[in-house]
C-alpha cells in the first residue's frame, strides 16, 4: 500500500474467500442460536414467576375454605398474594398471628393500600395520626377467614390486600367510623378494590403479550385473502376488527352484552340480516359496535360470523366533494358492490340517517340504492341513529323497517356508569395531574342523573367528571377531587343550586315568606304553601321525581296570582327571568299541543315547552289562564305533574323534576268573591270552589288532584290596595331616580287618594296601575319635558298635583 493511502477508503469489490464466507455464516447462525435459546429460557422463567410466585394456583381458595370448614388445618399464608405476603411476612415469620391492630398497621405500608385510601379521599398518614383510637373487636383469624370469603366472592385467585381491608372494615369499629366520616359503605370499598384489581389485571395483560394463553385463533392466514380487491372500501372505510387486534388488547365494553347478542342474532338471519341501533347521542351505540368488533377480533363470536371483517364506512368522507346526487349514489353503489363481492364484510354506518335525508349539507336520499343490498344475504349492514331520526325516516318507511332489525340501546344504569367512569379516570388524571376519589365518581353519577336531562349516560357523567376535575385543578393545582368539587362545578356550569345549603340560602329559605311579601300583598296561604315545598326539597327530605312543587292558583283577576309567581322566581332563583310564561289562551285548539311538545311530521317543529325546559331545567313554569287551553292539552299535564316527565314529539324524554309549576285560573272567581264577602272561612271556601269546578266540568278531578296544592286567592281589600299602591309607587320612585336622577316624594295623603281612586273589588290591583300611570307618571313626564325637573332635583307630589 502506498504511503498515505488508507485501504479502507477504497471502493473495491473484492470477492470473499471460501473461509471468509464460512466464518461469516457461522457467526450469524451462532447469534441466532443464542437469541433463540435466550427466548426459550425466558418463557418458562416468566411462566414460573407468574404461575408459582406472583399468582400461584397450587390450591384453589374454595378448596382451602372447604378444608377449614371440615375442621382440617390449612396454611392461609400460602393463599396470600405477593403483595400481602410481602408486607405481612414479618408478623407471620414465627407462625404466630398478629392482632388486628398490628395487621391493620402493616396493611397501611402496602402500595396497594395507597390506591384504596386515595380513592377514599384519605392517606395512610391521616389514619396513623388517629390510630391510637383503634380498639380490637375481632381476632385476626376471624378477619382472615372473612377475607378468604371475600376473595372467593370477588373471583380472586389469592387473598389480596384489599380483601383483608374489607374484612377489617366489616369487623373493626375504627374503620367503620372512618367510613362514616367519608360517607362510604363497605360495599363501596369492595367496588374500589375491584377497580384496583381490574386495573392491575389490564396492566399485566398489556405486558404479558408473549404469554401462550394470550394467543387465539381468529381466522388464520387466509382470513385477509378472502377480503379481495376493494379499493373503494379501503379508501372510505377502516377495519374495526383489525384495529382492535392491533391496538385494543385491553378494550372492554361494560354492560352491552344483551345488545351485542341481539346484533349477532340479527346478522345471522338468512335474509334481512341488517341492524339499526337506536338511541340518543352519547348513549354508547358506537361503543356497542366496538364491543362486537372486539368479539370478532378475539374469536368469541358465533360461527356464522367468524372470519368476517367489520368495516366502518366514513359517510362524511364518502359524500364530500361529489358532483351531484347521481355521483354520490354511484360511489355508494360501488362501495356496496365491493363489500358484496368480498363476501365477508359487515359494514358499519354511524349516523345512518345521513343516507336517508336530503336536508343539510352532505346528505342524500339513498333509499333506492340501499334496498337491493339490504335484501342480499351476501352483505350485512349495521347502522346507528337517534330516536327522532328513526321515527322520521325508518319507522314510517315499511320497506326499510322490514329489512333493518331495530336494537334499542338503553341508557347505562348507575352501576354500569360507575364502571365506565373507572375506566375513564386514568385518562382524566393523566391529563390534569389530579386524583379522583371514588366518592367523587359516585357523586358525579348522582348529580348527572339528577340535573342533566337532555344527555344520556355515560356521556353526561363523563363530561361532568372531566369538567369537575379540570375546574378543581385550575383552582387548587394538583389535588384530590372530592364530591364537593363535583357539586361546585355542576352549580357553576348549569346555574343550579346543587351544593349543600349554605348559611345565606338557609336564611333565605327560612324567611322565604317575608322575602316574597316584599312584592306580594296578602295571599298568606299561597306563599306559605310555596315556601314549604321549597324547604322540603332543599332540606333533602323528599326525593320525588315529580316537580319541586305544582300549584293551581284560583281567584279573580288582579289579586296577585302572576305577581306571586314572579316574586317566587325573584326570591328563590335570584332572577325574575327564571320564570318561563305560557299564555294558555293561545292553545285553544287540539293541534296546538304540537307547539308545546314538538312534532316530526313533515317539517320538524321544536316544542316551545320541551325546548324551554331542556335549556333551563331549574326554572319556574307559569301557565296563565289554563282553563282556556284545549282539554287534550290539559291531559299532557297529568303525566308531567304525576311522573315529572313527558315525551316530546321527537320521541325524547323531557324531565320536569327540577321545575316549579304554577297554573293560574280565573274560574270560580265569583264564588270566591261572594264567599269572602259573606265571611265564609278560607278552608270552606276552598272546598266549595273545588266542588264547583268539578261539578261544572271545568276541571276533571284527576287534573286537580295532581297539584301539590290548590290555592284560592281572595279579593284585595281597600287596605291591601293601599299597600299595593305603596309598592308600585316605590318601584316608580326607583325607576325615575335611576333613569333621570330625580328624587320623587309622594305624600301620605296623595298615596291614600291614589288607593281610593284605584280601588275596584272586581278588577283587583290592575286599575291601580292605570291610575298611577295617569296621575303620577303623566305629571312627572310633563314636568321633565317642560324643563321644570332636572337631574338632582326633588319633587313632592300632593293631592293637588293629582287633580
Percent of residues in β-strands: 5-15%
Number of helices: 37
End-to-end separation? 132 Å
Spatial strand arrangement across the major sheet: 1-3-4-5-2-6
Count of extended strands: 19
Helix proportion: 40-55%
What profile does the largest beta sheet have?
6 strands, mixed
Query: Per the principal axes of the C-alpha atoms, what is the gross shape?
Result: globular
Outline of this structure?
The chain is an alpha/beta fold and 803 residues long.
Structural summary, described in words:
With 803 residues, the chain is of the alpha/beta class. 54% of the residues lie in helices and 9% in strands. The strands form 6 sheets. The chain has a 6-stranded mixed beta sheet, with helices on both faces. Strand 11 (598-599) and strand 12 form a beta hairpin. Helix 5 crosses helix 10 (186-207), helix 14 (257-267) packs across helix 15 (285-298) and helix 35 crosses helix 36 (748-758). The chain is globular. The termini are far apart. The model is unreliable at 1-14 and 212-226 (pLDDT under 50).
Amino acid at each position: 500500500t502506498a504511503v498515505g493511502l488508507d485501504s479502507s477508503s477504497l471502493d473495491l469489490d473484492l470477492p470473499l474467500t471460501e473461509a471468509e464466507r464460512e466464518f461469516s455464516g457461522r457467526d450469524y447462525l451462532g447469534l441466532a442460536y443464542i437469541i433463540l435459546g435466550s427466548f426459550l429460557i425466558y418463557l418458562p422463567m416468566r411462566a414460573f414467576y407468574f404461575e408459582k410466585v406472583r399468582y400461584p394456583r397450587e390450591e384453589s381458595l374454595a378448596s382451602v375454605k372447604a378444608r377449614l370448614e371440615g375442621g382440617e388445618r390449612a396454611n392461609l399464608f400460602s393463599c396470600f398474594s405477593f403483595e400481602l405476603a410481602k408486607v405481612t411476612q414479618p408478623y407471620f415469620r414465627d407462625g404466630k398471628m398478629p392482632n388486628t391492630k398490628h395487621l391493620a398497621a402493616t396493611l397501611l405500608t402496602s402500595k396497594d393500600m395507597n390506591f384504596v385510601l386515595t380513592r377514599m379521599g384519605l392517606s395512610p398518614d391521616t389514619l396513623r395520626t388517629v390510630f391510637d383510637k383503634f380498639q380490637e373487636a375481632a381476632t385476626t383469624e376471624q378477619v382472615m377467614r372473612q377475607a378468604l370469603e371475600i376473595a372467593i366472592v370477588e373471583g380472586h385467585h389469592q387473598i389480596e390486600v384489599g380483601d383483608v381491608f374489607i374484612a377489617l372494615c366489616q369487623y373493626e369499629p375504627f374503620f367503620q367510623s372512618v367510613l362514616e366520616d367519608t360517607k362510604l359503605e363497605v360495599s363501596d370499598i369492595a367496588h374500589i378494590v375491584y377497580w384496583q384489581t381490574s386495573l392491575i389485571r389490564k396492566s399485566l395483560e398489556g405486558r404479558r403479550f408473549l404469554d401462550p394463553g394470550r394467543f387465539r385463533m381468529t381466522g388464520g392466514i387466509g382470513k385477509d385473502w378472502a377480503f379481495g380487491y376493494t379499493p373503494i372500501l379501503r379508501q372510505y372505510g377502516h377495519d374495526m376488527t383489525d384495529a382492535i387486534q392491533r391496538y385494543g388488547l385491553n378494550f372492554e365494553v361494560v354492560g352491552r352484552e344483551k345488545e351485542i347478542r341481539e346484533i349477532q342474532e340479527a346478522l345471522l338471519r338468512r335474509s334481512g340480516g341488517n341492524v339499526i341501533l337506536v338511541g340518543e347521542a352519547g348513549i354508547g351505540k358506537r361503543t356497542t359496535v366496538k364491543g362486537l368488533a372486539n368479539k370478532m377480533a378475539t374469536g368469541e363470536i358465533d360461527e356464522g360470523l367468524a372470519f368476517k371483517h367489520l368495516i366502518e364506512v366514513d359517510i362524511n368522507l364518502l359524500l364530500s366533494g361529489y358532483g351531484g346526487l347521481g355521483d354520490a349514489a354511484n360511489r355508494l353503489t360501488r362501495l356496496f358492490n365491493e363489500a358484496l363481492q368480498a363476501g365477508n364484510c359487515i359494514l358499519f354506518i354511524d349516523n345512518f340517517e345521513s343516507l336517508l335525508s336530503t336536508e343539510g349539507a352532505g346528505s342524500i336520499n339513498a333509499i333506492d340504492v340501499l334496498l337491493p343490498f339490504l335484501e342480499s344475504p351476501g352483505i350485512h349492514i349495521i347502522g346507528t341513529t337517534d330516536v327522532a331520526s328513526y321515527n322520521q325516516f325508518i319507522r314510517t318507511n315499511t320497506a326499510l323497517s322490514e329489512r333493518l332489525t331495530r336494537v334499542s340501546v338503553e341508557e347505562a344504569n348507575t352501576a354500569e356508569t360507575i364502571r365506565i367512569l373507572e375506566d375513564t379516570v386514568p385518562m382524566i388524571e393523566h391529563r390534569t395531574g389530579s386524583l379522583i376519589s371514588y366518592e367523587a365518581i359516585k357523586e358525579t353519577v348522582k348529580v348527572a342523573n339528577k340535573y342533566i336531562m337532555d344527555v344520556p349516560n355515560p356521556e353526561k357523567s363523563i363530561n361532568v367528571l372531566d369538567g369537575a376535575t379540570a375546574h378543581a385543578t385550575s383552582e387548587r393545582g394538583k389535588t384530590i377531587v372530592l364530591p364537593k368539587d363535583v357539586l361546585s362545578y355542576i352549580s357553576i356550569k348549569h346555574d343550579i343550586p346543587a351544593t349543600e345549603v349554605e348559611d345565606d340560602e338557609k336564611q333565605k329559605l327560612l324567611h322565604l315568606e317575608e322575602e316574597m311579601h316584599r312584592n306580594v300583598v296578602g295571599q298568606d296561604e299561597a306563599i306559605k304553601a310555596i315556601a314549604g315545598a321549597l324547604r322540603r326539597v332543599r332540606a333533602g327530605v323528599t326525593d320525588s321525581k315529580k316537580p319541586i312543587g305544582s300549584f293551581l292558583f284560583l281567584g279573580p283577576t288582579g289579586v296577585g296570582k302572576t305577581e306571586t309567581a314572579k316574586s317566587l322566581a325573584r326570591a328563590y332563583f335570584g332572577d325574575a327571568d327564571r320564570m318561563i310564561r305560557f299564555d294558555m289562551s293561545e292553545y285553544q285548539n287540539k293541534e296546538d299541543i304540537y307547539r308545546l311538545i314538538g312534532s316530526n311530521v313533515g317539517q320538524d317543529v321544536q316544542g316551545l315547552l320541551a325546548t324551554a325546559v331542556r335549556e333551563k331545567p331549574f326554572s319556574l313554569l307559569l301557565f296563565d289562564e289554563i282553563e282556556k287551553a284545549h282539554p287534550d292539552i290539559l291531559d299532557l299535564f297529568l303525566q308531567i305533574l304525576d311522573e315529572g316527565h313527558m315525551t316530546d314529539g321527537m320521541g325524547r324524554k323531557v324531565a320536569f323534576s327540577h321545575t316549579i309549576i304554577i297554573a293560574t285560573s280565573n274560574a270560580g272567581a265569583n264564588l270566591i268573591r261572594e264567599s269572602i264577602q259573606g265571611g265564609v272561612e278560607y278552608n270552606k271556601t276552598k272546598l266549595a270552589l273545588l266542588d264547583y269546578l268539578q261539578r261544572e266540568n271545568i276541571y276533571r278531578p284527576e287534573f286537580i288532584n295532581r297539584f301539590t296544592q290548590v290555592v284560592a286567592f281572595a279579593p284585595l281589600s281597600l287596605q291591601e290596595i293601599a299597600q299595593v299602591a305603596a309598592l308600585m309607587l316605590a318601584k316608580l320612585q326607583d325607576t325615575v331616580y335611576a333613569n333621570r336622577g330625580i328624587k320623587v316624594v309622594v305624600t301620605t295623603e296623595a298615596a291614600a287618594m291614589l288607593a281610593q281612586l284605584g280601588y275596584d273589588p272586581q278588577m283587583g290591583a290592575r286599575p291601580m296601575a292605570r291610575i298611577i300611570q295617569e296621575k303620577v307618571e303623566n305629571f312627572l313626564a310633563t314636568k321633565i319635558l317642560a324643563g321644570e325637573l332636572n337631574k338632582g332635583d326633588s319633587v313632592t307630589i300632593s293631592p293637588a298635583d293629582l287633580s
